[in-house]
User: Fold these one by one.
Assistant:
Number 1:
Amino acid sequence: MGELAQAYAAVRQRSLRIAAPLSSEDCCAQSMPDASPVKWHLAHTTWFFETFLLEPHEPGFQPHHPAFRVLFNSYYNGIGDKHPRPRRGLLTRPSLDEVRAYRADVDRRMEALLGGQPGQALASLMVLGLQHEQQHQELMLTDLKHLLAQNPMYPAYTPEALDPAAPAPALEFIEFDGGLAEIGYNGRGFCFDNELPRHREYVAPFALASRLVTNGEYLEFIESGGYRDPSLWLAEGWDRVCAGEILQPLYWLEEGGAWREFTLHGVQPLDLARPVTHVSLYEADAYARWRKSRLPTEAEWEFAARQAALSGGSLHPEGADGEGLQQMFGACWQWTSSSYAPYPGYAPAAGAIGEYNGKFMVNQYVLRGSSCATPDGHARPSYRNFFPAGARWQFTGIRLAR
Amino acid sequence: MGELAQAYAAVRQRSLRIAAPLSSEDCCAQSMPDASPVKWHLAHTTWFFETFLLEPHEPGFQPHHPAFRVLFNSYYNGIGDKHPRPRRGLLTRPSLDEVRAYRADVDRRMEALLGGQPGQALASLMVLGLQHEQQHQELMLTDLKHLLAQNPMYPAYTPEALDPAAPAPALEFIEFDGGLAEIGYNGRGFCFDNELPRHREYVAPFALASRLVTNGEYLEFIESGGYRDPSLWLAEGWDRVCAGEILQPLYWLEEGGAWREFTLHGVQPLDLARPVTHVSLYEADAYARWRKSRLPTEAEWEFAARQAALSGGSLHPEGADGEGLQQMFGACWQWTSSSYAPYPGYAPAAGAIGEYNGKFMVNQYVLRGSSCATPDGHARPSYRNFFPAGARWQFTGIRLAR
Amino acid sequence: MGELAQAYAAVRQRSLRIAAPLSSEDCCAQSMPDASPVKWHLAHTTWFFETFLLEPHEPGFQPHHPAFRVLFNSYYNGIGDKHPRPRRGLLTRPSLDEVRAYRADVDRRMEALLGGQPGQALASLMVLGLQHEQQHQELMLTDLKHLLAQNPMYPAYTPEALDPAAPAPALEFIEFDGGLAEIGYNGRGFCFDNELPRHREYVAPFALASRLVTNGEYLEFIESGGYRDPSLWLAEGWDRVCAGEILQPLYWLEEGGAWREFTLHGVQPLDLARPVTHVSLYEADAYARWRKSRLPTEAEWEFAARQAALSGGSLHPEGADGEGLQQMFGACWQWTSSSYAPYPGYAPAAGAIGEYNGKFMVNQYVLRGSSCATPDGHARPSYRNFFPAGARWQFTGIRLAR
Amino acid sequence: MGELAQAYAAVRQRSLRIAAPLSSEDCCAQSMPDASPVKWHLAHTTWFFETFLLEPHEPGFQPHHPAFRVLFNSYYNGIGDKHPRPRRGLLTRPSLDEVRAYRADVDRRMEALLGGQPGQALASLMVLGLQHEQQHQELMLTDLKHLLAQNPMYPAYTPEALDPAAPAPALEFIEFDGGLAEIGYNGRGFCFDNELPRHREYVAPFALASRLVTNGEYLEFIESGGYRDPSLWLAEGWDRVCAGEILQPLYWLEEGGAWREFTLHGVQPLDLARPVTHVSLYEADAYARWRKSRLPTEAEWEFAARQAALSGGSLHPEGADGEGLQQMFGACWQWTSSSYAPYPGYAPAAGAIGEYNGKFMVNQYVLRGSSCATPDGHARPSYRNFFPAGARWQFTGIRLAR
C-alpha cells in the first residue's frame, strides 16, 4: 500500500473513531446554522472524494445515491444545488448506518483509484481531500461540543478525567526585530491556496507574548469589570455585550461565585492555569486593550512562529509548561487583528474547487496556530484559519502582542 | 386486570407502536418550533403520569431522573421551569432507549398504583393522562410527517400502498332547523374541561355540506386563480399569500402541471376524490367564499353532528362514500369560524393541571370532528380541537356551510 | 346648506382643528407600523372622498394628483397598489401644506357634488365617508400620542391642565337577566356593515361592573404581583410579559416608587380615580381573573348598554361620578372576550368598499363603547370596534363581568 | 476675525445652506437606521462643539437644553446615554427652528471662545469639530438622497439640470513600481488619528486604472449576466444577490429595458459616461473579477495618489475628462480591498473623543479618495473613509487595479 493510500486509510478511519462514542441521535442533531451534525460531516467529506475525485476519474462512475450530490454539497455553487445549511439537522435519512455504508463504498472505490498509480494532479486532489477531511474532524468535535452544551444535562463526550494543569509560567513578551519578511508557504509539502503566493511584507519591530492568556488571567479581567467598561471594546463587540450575547467565555458557568467550564470531558472546575478558550475576537481585543497590549497581525505571528514547536492532540487545551515561545500550536487558535484577505497575486484554482477558500475573503478574521482538536500533522506556520469576529465555538484563544 | 389498567396498557403500547418503524434519529429531530420530536412525545406523555399521578400519589416517590421534570415539561408554569420548546430537537440525551426505559419504569409504577384500587379523583386523572397521550399520538404522526417532508427524498413512514379512492358522491347541503340548542358534553364518560359547561346557544337555521371538500374541488379553486384574487381572502391570509407562505395545501407538489401529494405513504399522485387536507383557516375561508358558502360555527357543527357516525384510524384521509352527513369524524379536522373561547361559566381545574386548556383561549380557532390520525375512541361530537388560523401541519380539511 | 353639507363641513373642519396645534414635523413622523402620521390621516380621509365619491360621480373627474391614488390608499386591494404601511412616515412630500390644499380642493368639489341633490346611494356613501373620517380623528389622537411618547422629552399635545378626578364610586356588579336577545343595529340612522344583520343570540344571566376599573385598582394588581404570576395570564400574554413587552400599562412611568402617566396633557401624576387605560386584552383578562371576574362578551355588553348614556369628548378619560351603569361611553373602549367575527348572514358591500370591515374578521377582539377621543355622535350601543389582543395604544380600558 | 473663526463661520454656514432648500418635514424623517435626519445632523454637529469645546472650556457653562446631551449624542459612551440611533426620525421636537436656534446660540458662544485666543489644544479640537461637521455635510446629502428615494414620486433636491457628460476616455492601467513606502499622513495640517502613525509598508509593483468604471461599463456587466454568475461573487455578496437585496446599483431604475438613475437632480437617464456609483464592495469586487482585475489595497491607492489632483463639489459624480490618473478625488469614494484596521502603533486620544475612529476598526472596509459630495478642502491622499461591505448609499465607485 502506497504512502498516499496509507494516509487515506488513516485519515478516513480517524473520522469514524471520532464518531464512535456517539449515538446516531448525537450524530444527527444541529445546534445552530454554523455547526453541522457529525453525520453530515461524515457524509460531506465522503461527498468531496466522490464528487471531485471519483466522478471525473473513475471509469463508468455511478453516484452512490443520486440525492447525495445535493444533500451533502456544502457551498460549491459550481457543483449545483445545496441542501440549505440551517436544515442539515433535519436529515434523519440517510441514517448514520447508511452514511457509514456510503463511506465504505467510496473508500473501496477510492482505494481502487489509488491503486492505479494516480498522476500528480489526481494525487494533489487526493491530498486536498484528506486535508479537507482533517479540517472537518476538528469541526466534528467543536460542533458536537456546541450541541452537547445545549443540553441542560451537559453530557460529556469522553469519560476520561481532565487533570489540573501545572501553574502557568509567567507571561513574558519576546522581542522580534521584524523587517522585510517573506510570508506564506514555501515548503515542498501541501498547503492551501490561501497560503500562497509567498510574498514580501514589511513587519515593524514587535513583541509577542510567550504563552496564551490563561483562564486565571481572563477571570481577573471579568472580575475587574471588563465586560462593563465600553472603553475597552470595539463598538460591535460592545453592542453584543449590551444585547447579552457575550457575557463571559462561551462555555463558562458561574454559580454562587464559583466558576466551572463545560468541556468535552463534561463540566469541570475552571482550571486557572489552562488557556482561556471559546472567546470571540471582540473579547480577545478587549482583553488585550485592558492589558495595554494588542492582538498580533498574522504576519507578525508567522514571523515569530517559524521556530515554534508543533504539538496537539487532546480534547481540551493544555497549560503552558516550557520556556520561550510556547503554545503556538496545539492549544488554541489565536485571533489576529488581520482580516482574511487574499495575498498579493492570489488566484484560486479553476472550477468549483476554486470556491474552497477565495470566496470567503471578506468580513472574517485570521486565526493562526492550531488547537487541541486539530489533527496531528495538519498544522504549519503559514496556516490561515478564519472565522467571523463573533465566532466562539472553536477552540479560540488569546496571544498578546505589543 | 381492571378496565382502567387495560386501557392504560393499550394506550401506552400504541404510542410505542407508532414509533416502532422509526430510527432513533427520526425520533429525535424537530422540524419547527410547533412540532416536537417523537421521542419528546414519548417522554412527555410519561412525564405527565409521573408528575401528576406518581408524584402526589406514589408512596416514597422518587423521580426517575431529576432532570426530566424540566426537560419534559411542555407548558405547565405551575410545575416550574421548562426546556425551551424550539430546542426540543437538540436533546440527543436521554437516548431513545433511555426514554423507553423511562416509559417502562413509569408503567411499572403506574400499574402498581392502578392495582391499588384508585379512588375516583385518581381514576379521573388517570383517564386524563390517557386522553392526553392519545392527543400526543396524533401529534406524533403529524409532527413526524412534517419532519419527513423537510427531507428532499420525501421518505415514507409506511411501505403500505395507498389505493385510489372511489369517486366522491355529489356535495349536497343538508338543512338544519336550528333553535335554542344545548351545546357541550352531557354524557357520562370522559370529556375535556373545555367542553363544559353544557349551555344554551341560539342557532339560526343553517345548512351543512354532506361531505368534505375534495382535492379535485380544491384544485379547481387553484386553477381558477383562487390564490391570486385578494377579494376572496381575509387580509391576514392574503398577506401570507403575498409573502409566499401559502401557495397551495402544505404537502402538495406540482411539477410540469402534474400534482402529487406527500403522505405518510410517501409521495402519491393527488387523489382527486379524497378530501383536501393540510389547509389553513385562511385557505378554508377563501375556498368557502369562492364557493359562495362559509365555514360553520362550532355550535352549528355540533348541532348537526349528533347523529353522525364515528370512524377513523388510517394514515391518510379516506374519501366519502355514503349518503347523508359523512366524514364528520375520521377523515379531517374541520375548521370552524369560531374562535376558541371559554363556554359561559367555564372554570379550569385548580393547580397546574388547570393549565391544560384554559390559558390557550385566545387567537386560536376551533376545529371539530376528528382526523384519520385520531386514535379510535378519542372523538365525540362535543370535542373541541384548536389551532392558530395559519396552522397547516394537522390533518385539517374543509366542511362548507350556508 | 343642507344637513349633509353641514355635517360634511363640520367633520372636515374638526380634522384640521386636531392638527392645528402641531408642526408639520409632528404631522409627518410615524412611530410604528400600526400608527400613521397625522398628515397621512388628513390625506387618506380626503382620498376616501376623492376615490369613492368624486371619481365615480363627478362629471369630468380628474385626480388632484395622479400619485395620490397609491400614496394614500390604506388597504383597498380593489383600488390597486398601496404605499407600504410601515413607510408612511417617509413621505415628506407632499408637504403638510400640499395636503391641506388637497383637502381644500376635494372639499370644494365635494360641496359642488353635495349641492346637486345627491341620491340615496351617494348620500349613504357620503355619510360613510364622514364616519370614516371620524374614526381617523380618533386615530389621529392615539397615533400622535404614541409618537409623542417616543420622545424622551414627552411633549404635551395641549397646554391645558388635567384636574384630579373625584374619588371613584364603589364598583358594583349590576345583574341582568339575559335571555334570547336581539343583537345588532336596528335604528334608522347610520351603522357600519359589521353591526348587521340584527339577529338573535341567547344571553345567559350575567352581571356587569357599574364602572371601569380605575388606575388605583389596577395599581393594586401590579403591587400584589399581578405581572409575576403566570396563573393569571393567557399563555400568549405571559409570553409577552416574560419578553418584557408588557410590564405595566403602556404610558405608565415609574420612578422611585412614584407613578406618573403620559397623557396628551403631558406627563401627569397617576390619577388613581380615573380609569386605567392603554392596556391590552391580555392585561384586561389577567386583571379580571385576579379579581375573580371575567371580561363580558360583546352580546352581554350590548344587552346592558341599551339604556346607557352617551358622553365623551376629552383628551383623557374622566373618572366615574354617577350611579348605575356608568362610563359605557366616552371614557375607554372596553375589551370583550368576543373575537371579531361576522354576524350570522353578514355580507359586505360589493366592490372595494366591501373591504372596509369584513376582511379583518380574524385574530382580533371586539371592543365596545367609545373613548374620550371618540368624536361626538360617533358612538352607539351596537358599535363594534376591534383590535388585536396585544394592542395598547388606543384608549382601552377594563369593564368586568361575572 | 482670525483664520479659525473664519473657517468656523464658513463651515457652519455651509451646513445651513445644504438644508436651505428643504422643508422641516424633509429634515425630520429617517429612512433607515444607518441614515440620520438632516435636522439631527444639524443638531449633532452643534452638540459636538457644545460638548467637547464649550462644556470644558466656557466659563460658567450652562447647557443650551439639558435633554440635548442625550438626544444628540451619536455614539460616545464616554459622554453617557444616547437616544437610540434607529429612532432619530421620531424626534419631531425640538423643531427645525429650535435646532437652528441651538446652532445660533452655540455659534455665538463659540465665537466668544474663539475670540479669546484659544491655545493649541483648544484650536486643535475646534479644527476637529469643523472636520467633523464637514463629514456630516456629506452625510446630510447622502442620507437625504436615500430618504427622497423612498418616495415613489422621487423628488429632486435641486431643480438644476444635469448635463450629459462627455464620452469617457479609454480606461488604461498605469504601472507603479511600488517598494517600501511610507504610508499615512505626514503634512503639517489636520488629519484624523486613523491616518497616523505614518509607517512603512511594502508595496509590490502594481497597476491602477486611469479612471473610475463608468455606468456604461457597469451596464455591460449587468447585461452579460454578472448578477447571475456566482463564480464572480464573494459568498456573502452572492447571498445578498440571491436574497434580492442587491440587483443593480442602488438608485438605478429599469423600465422596459431603459435605464434611469435617481440623483439629487431627480430621476435622470442613465449617463453612460459618468462613473457608476452607489455600489457595494461586493459589487465592486464582482465587477473587478469579471474584468480580470481586482480592487486596490489602500496602500496601493495612497502610493499612487500622491500626485493626483484634488477636485469636487457637485451633487452627482462628473465624468472623467483628462489624461493620466483621474478622478482620484471629487467623483466617487473608491472601495479598496483593505479592511479598516489600526496602523501599527495607532493610539486613539484619551477620553470620549478617542471613540471617534478607533472603536469602529472591525468589519468595515476602507474607501479612498473623496466624492462629489465631499466638502472642498476636506480630502487628502491619506484620508481613510470606511463603511461595511454592503453599504451603498454613499457615493461609492470602482477603481480597478492589477
Number 2:
Amino acid sequence: MDNQFTTEIANNLFTINNLWMMIATALVFLMHLGFATLETGLVQSKNTINILFKNSIIPAIGLVTHAIIGFSLMYPAESYLGGIIGFSGFGIGTDAAGVTDSYNIGYTYWTDFLFQGMFAATAATIVSGAVAERIKLSSFLIFSTFFVAIIYPITGMWKWGGGFLDNLGFYDFAGSTLVHSVGGWGALTGVIFLGPRIGKYMKGRIYPIPGHNIPLAVIGVFLLWLGWFGFNGGSVLSADPGLVSLVLVTTSLAASAGAIGAMVTSWSYLKKPDLTMTLNGILAGLVGITAGADLMSPLSSIIIGLIAGVIVVFAVIIFDRIKIDDPVGAISVHLICGIFGTLAVGIFGEKAGLEQLFHQAVGILTIGAFVVSSTSVMWFVIKKTVGIRVSQEEEYIGLDIGEHAMEAYPYFEKVS
Amino acid sequence: MDNQFTTEIANNLFTINNLWMMIATALVFLMHLGFATLETGLVQSKNTINILFKNSIIPAIGLVTHAIIGFSLMYPAESYLGGIIGFSGFGIGTDAAGVTDSYNIGYTYWTDFLFQGMFAATAATIVSGAVAERIKLSSFLIFSTFFVAIIYPITGMWKWGGGFLDNLGFYDFAGSTLVHSVGGWGALTGVIFLGPRIGKYMKGRIYPIPGHNIPLAVIGVFLLWLGWFGFNGGSVLSADPGLVSLVLVTTSLAASAGAIGAMVTSWSYLKKPDLTMTLNGILAGLVGITAGADLMSPLSSIIIGLIAGVIVVFAVIIFDRIKIDDPVGAISVHLICGIFGTLAVGIFGEKAGLEQLFHQAVGILTIGAFVVSSTSVMWFVIKKTVGIRVSQEEEYIGLDIGEHAMEAYPYFEKVS
Amino acid sequence: MDNQFTTEIANNLFTINNLWMMIATALVFLMHLGFATLETGLVQSKNTINILFKNSIIPAIGLVTHAIIGFSLMYPAESYLGGIIGFSGFGIGTDAAGVTDSYNIGYTYWTDFLFQGMFAATAATIVSGAVAERIKLSSFLIFSTFFVAIIYPITGMWKWGGGFLDNLGFYDFAGSTLVHSVGGWGALTGVIFLGPRIGKYMKGRIYPIPGHNIPLAVIGVFLLWLGWFGFNGGSVLSADPGLVSLVLVTTSLAASAGAIGAMVTSWSYLKKPDLTMTLNGILAGLVGITAGADLMSPLSSIIIGLIAGVIVVFAVIIFDRIKIDDPVGAISVHLICGIFGTLAVGIFGEKAGLEQLFHQAVGILTIGAFVVSSTSVMWFVIKKTVGIRVSQEEEYIGLDIGEHAMEAYPYFEKVS
C-alpha cells in the first residue's frame, strides 16, 4: 500500500507539472499572435497582408520542421565534437515511458516537443519584423525554414541540449541569448544584406516611417507580456510553486520597469511621451530579465527592467543613425537587450560575479559569431540565387499587392 | 490512515483534472472571440457592427439556453426511442455529489455544464459567418436560439450523451461531426434559403467581395487555434498527461500542416500565396484532426492537416462556382473538413479500418440528414413569417446602419 | 512514512492551488488589454494613442507601486485606528516560508503579491476611460499613481486586509465595491472636475460622440469576460473544484444575462439593438455578480445579470442627461452596477437578509465617502497646480498630436 501511495502521489505531481507546461506552451503559442499584431501595427498599411502572412506561416513551418529535424538537433541523445553538434534522427515518436515521469518529472515527451517547438518558432518571428516592407516572401520563407530548423536548434543545443556552453558555465534561464539574441543576430544580418527601405535615409536625414495601426501594436505587446508568463514561467520546467511564482514576479516587474524607463527616457530626451518607445520598453524589460528571471530579487528585476528600458530607446536611435533600418525595433529589443540581459546574470542576483560575467560573454560571443556567419552565408546565397529584395516598384506600391494581390483594408481611403 | 490517504490523493487528482477542464472551458470561450474577429475581418466594413452584435450575443444566448434546456437534452439521465431523444427536465442544479469525483473523476457538475455550454454556442457561431451581410438580425437570433438550444444538443446526445450513434460504434473525439459539421449543415441550409449577396454572381461571373480588415481575421484564426487547445485538449475530460499532451501535439501539427497545404495549393493553383486561404488551411487542419485527435501519430496528423488544407482551397472555389455564397468560407472549413476529419478516423490512426469507416459514414449521414431537414424547416418557417433577408436597399447601405443605426468606423473615409 | 505522505499530499495540493492562482493572475493581467482595447474602441480616433499610452503604462505603475507600498498598505501585519489603516513597511520580500503552504495553503507570497498587484491596477484603468479625450496626460499619471498606490489599498484593507468593514460583516467576494466602485467613484469625481468634452452638451441637447473602432471594443469586452474567470475564479484563493467552478458558472451566466438584459432594454427603449449597450450589459452582469459570485445559484446569477443589464442602459442615459460625460460608460458599469452587485449580496443567495443588506450599504457608503473625498482633494490639487485639462485647441486637434506628436492611423483618410 505504501508503495502504491508513493506512485500515486508522484503521478499527481507529474500531472500538475505537465499541466503547467502545457499551459505555458499555449502561452508561448500566443506570443506568435503577439508578434504578428505588434509587427503588423508598426509597418505601413500597404505591407499588412505580407507581414501577417509571414507571421501566420512561421509557427506552422516552425512546428513541422521541429517535428522533422529541429527537436532532434536541439536535444540529441548525445553530442559530438566536444558538444558542438548532435542529432538523434529524423522525426519524433515516443515509447510508453515518454508519457510518464521516467521521461522527465516535469512533462511528457509530447509536451516537451510542443513547448520547444513553440520556442523555436519565436526566433524566426523576431527576424520577420526587422526585414519587413522590402524582403521577398519566398526568400524570407527559405531563410526562416533553415533558421528555425537548423540554426536555432544547433545553438540551442550548446546550452539547453547539454552542449559545450552548458559545460562552460554559461547561464541562460529562458533564452535572452539562445532565443532573443539568436533572432536578433539573424535580424541584423538580414537588414544589412537587404539595406534600408526606400526613402528612409536621404541626403543625410532620417525620415520616420510610422506604423499604420498602433492599437494592433499595443495588443501585440500585451500578448507578448502574457506569453512571457509561459516563456519564462515554463522554463522552470515544472510547476514548482516558489520558483514559478518568483519568475512571474521578476518577469512582470522587469516589464513594468522597462515601460517606465523607456517612458521617462523618451519624455526627457525626445520631449514627448513616446508610445512606441514605451511599448519597446516593456519588451526590453522582458528580454532583459529572461536570462536570469529565476535568480533575481524584485528589486534587481526592477533595476534590470529600468536599464533595459533606457537602453532600448538609445539603441533604436543609434541604429537609425547608422542606417540599420529596422521597422519594428526588433534588433534593439531582442539583440541589444538580449545581450544586456545575459550579462545581467553576471551583474545582479544569485550568480553575480566576474567569473560568471566572463561565462556570459563567452556564450554571447560564440553564439553571435555562429549566427552572424551562418545567417550571412544564407542571406548571401539567397541574394545570389532567388534574390532577396522586391523590386523598387513593388516596394512603392506595397508588398500586399505585389506579393499577394490583396489588400488588408480595401474599403478605407488611404492617404495618398 | 491509509483510507484517508486514498481519499486525499483522489481529491488532489480530481482538483487537477477539474482545473484543466476549467481552463479548457476558458479556452473554448475564447474561441467565440476568435470567431467574432475572424468573421468580422472577412466581411465588408458596412456590416461590421452587425456581425459583432451576432457573435457577441450568441455565447450569451448559448449559455442561458444551455442552462434552461440544452444541457438536459444533451446529457439526459436516460434516453428514449432507441437513443434518439432524452430530457432530464428544465434548469440546472446540483446536489453535493456534483462537486466531488463521484459525479465524474474529471470535473464537477458546474465545470461540465460550462464546458458543454461553451461548445454548444460555437455551433451557432459557425452559422453566423456564412449567412453574414444579408440576414435579418431578428431572424438570425430566432434561428440561433433554437439551433443552439434544441438541434445541437439532440444530435450531440446521439454520441456524447450515450445515444444510438454511440452504441453503433461511431467515433467523434471532439466534434468534427457533432460540432463542426452540425454548424456547417446549418450554415449550408441558411445560405441556400438566403441566396447569395447582391452583386456576388452576375452574368456568369464571380465577383470577389473582399474582407475589410484582415488583421482582425488573423487575430481570429490564432485565437481559434489557441482555443482548440481547450476544445480538443479538454475533450480528454481529464488532465491525463499522456493523452492531453498527445492531443495538443496532433492538433497543432494538423493546424500547421493545414496552413502549409493551403499555402502551397493556393500558390500553385491561384498563382499567389493567398493569406485568407492559408488561414482557412489552419482552420481546416484543426477541424480535420478534431474527430481523431486522440488516435493519431504525429505523422498521421500532419497528413490529415495537409489533406484538409488542400481540400479547403478547392471547397471554397467549388462552392463559389455553384453559387453557394459563404462570405467567410465556413461551410468549406467546418462542413467539408468536418466530414473529412470524421472519415479520417476510419482511414488513419488507431481505429483505422473499413468497419470504422462505415460507422463514421453512418454518423455523418444521420446527423447531416437530421440537421439539414430540421434547419430547413426552421429557415422555411422564419422566411414565411418574420422574413429572412434584409431589404435590397438595406443590403446596399449595410446592415450596420440598417439594423443598428451605428457605424463601426465613423471617423474613417470609406472608398465610395 | 505516514508523515511523509501527509506532507507530500499537502505539497501537491499547494502546487495545484498555486498553479490556479498564477493562471488567475495571468487572466487578470489580460483584463488590462481588455480595458485598453475597449476604451480605445470607444473614443475618437484622434485620441487613440493617448488612451493606449495611459492603459499601457498603468499596469506598469500599478505593479511597481504595489511592490513599493501598495501591497504593504493593503495586507499589513496589523492595522490601527480600529482597522482603518495599516502598513508593513516599504518593499516586498519573503523568507523561506513564503513559498510554502505555511504562508497560505492557496498560494505563495509571490503569487499573492502579483495577483493583488494586477487587481490594484484595474482600479486605475477604470478611471482612464471615463476621463478620456480631455485630461492632461501628466495629471492623469499623477492621479493614477496615488490612486493605485494609496487609495485603492487603503479601502481594500478595510475588507480584504482584515480591517473594520471585515469585522462589521460587510461582504464583497471579488470586489464589486472594493475594485469596481472604487474605480467608479474615482472616475465620477474626475469627470466632475474635468467637465464634459467640448461639443458634447450644447444648447440643451446631447450630441453623441461615437467610438472610432468598434471591433476593438468587442475584443475588449470578450477579454474582460475571460479575465473575469481569473478575477472572480481566483478570488476563491485556491483551486477548490466545487467553489471555483460554481463561480465560473455564476460569472458567465450573469455576463450572458447582462447582455440579454441590455439588448432587450435598448431594443425596446431605443428602438435599435444597440451594440455598445449590449457590450456594457455584459460588463454590467460581470460587475454585478462579482460581490456574491460564490453565493449565488445559477438562477440568481441570471436574475442579477438581467437586472444589471437593464440598469446599465438607463444609467448611461441618465448620466448623459445630467451632463456627466463618460465616453466609455465606465461610471455606469463599474460604479452603479458595482453598488447594485454589492447590495445584491443582501437580496439574493446564501447571505440574503436585511441585516446583510445593511452591512452592504455601510460598506458602499464608507468606501464611497472616502474615495469621493480623497480623490476630490487630489483632483483639486492637481487642477490648481499642474492643471487638469488640455487646452481647447489641443482637444480639437486631438491628444494624440497634442500630447504625443503621433498618430494612430497615419495612412488612413479621416472624415473631416
